[in-house]
Amino acid sequence: MTPDFNKMNGLVPAIIQDASTKNILMLGFMDNAAYSKTCEEKRVTFFSRTKQRLWTKGERSGNYLHVKSIEIDCDNDTLLIKVSPEGAVCHTGTDTCFGETKNEGDFLFELEKLIGSRKNEMPKNSYTTHLFNKGLSKIAQKVGEEATEIVIASLSETDERLMEESADFLYHFLVLLAEKDVSLNDIITLLKNRHLAS
Q1: Which of 105, 86, 98, 101 is nearest to 25 (CA)?
Q2: Domain 12-85 carries which CATH code?
Q3: What is the pLDDT of residues 22-77, one digit of tens each?
Q4: CA separation for the pair 170, 146 (Å, rounded)
Q5: All structural domains of the chain with their residue ranges
Q6: Contact at 8 Å (CB) between 15 and 25?
Q7: Residue range 74-102, pLDDT digits in tens
Q8: Do the beta carbons of residue 58 and residue 51 sit within 8 Å?
Q9: In this structure, what DSSP letter does residue 11 have?
Q10: String of DSSP letters for 70-104
Q11: How many angstroms separate the most distant Cα atoms in the chain?
């Protein structure tokens, strides 16, 4: 389905949403050329109404919006573009153009992205790189060890130790998911579906 660019004199609004956190990040406008470039390059490009030209978000700052999916509303005149943001979204340095700050739960998605970048770049002197170099068996073993330490901490140690071991488990679990190319959103969707079915 192609957007109807005729309703607003050649433009359609494009709502930009974080694919992981579902937070609304910003609103921009696209003409047919901006839409085509966005689809082709998988990075969001708008039509700037003030500059009267195409403008790729991040072309100067490097804070690109990497496209994960594009949906068109029921009237065919508004886009919902789900992205993976690279850096701050707003030129003021905030996470969104609406001044909102990230929720504490969003940090897990940030950590997931960081672990994914470590897997792709494999920087030296990184513990995450060390785990990926060891391979799936070692990563799975670490997850098992951390799970056991959670059980021990919950039965015979302080709440602080339980939290520390839980944090260790969550980190290693995210590394395991990255190694298997499974996302945190995949797990959340499965849990939601189970909840709806119960």
Answers
A1: 98
A2: 3.10.20.810
A3: 889 999 999 999 999 999 999 999 999 999 999 999 888 889 999 999 999 999 99
A4: 9
A5: 12-85, 106-197
A6: no
A7: 999 999 999 988 888 888 878 888 876 66
A8: no
A9: B
A10: EEE-TTSS-EEEEEEE-S-SSTTS-SSTT-----T
A11: 68
